[in-house]
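Notes from the 1:1 (GR / supervisor)

We went over the backlog. Supervisor wanted to see one worked example end to end before approving the batch request, so GR pasted a single chain during the call. The sequence is below; no edits were made to it. Supervisor asked that the structure be written out right there so they could see what the output format looks like.
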Amino acid sequence: MRQESELCMKKSVTGSILVAGGMISTAILFAAGISAGITNDGNFSTLWIINQFGLIPVLVVYFAVAVIGAIITLIAIFDNGEDYEEGNSSTSSK
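Structure output shown during the call:
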């Protein structure tokens, strides 16, 4: 039972760190795009500015990391431990 809770905790902490890292990186990238100062009377959007610097693939990667982290966290939260019931575990506890 203890292994199950430790594994669930590890998954949720890992997922939370990935979500935080992805969202913070995305926010920093948007902030840098806003502060770039490449506007024509305010007509250009932040995504256009990020595109001009060629950073759209980086934005997609940061967002994907955040989504993957959210999925890992949700799996850890809703995992009911069916694989770790006594007798079904692949590792033996002493």
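Supervisor's comment: The chain has a mean pLDDT of 80.
Batch request approved.
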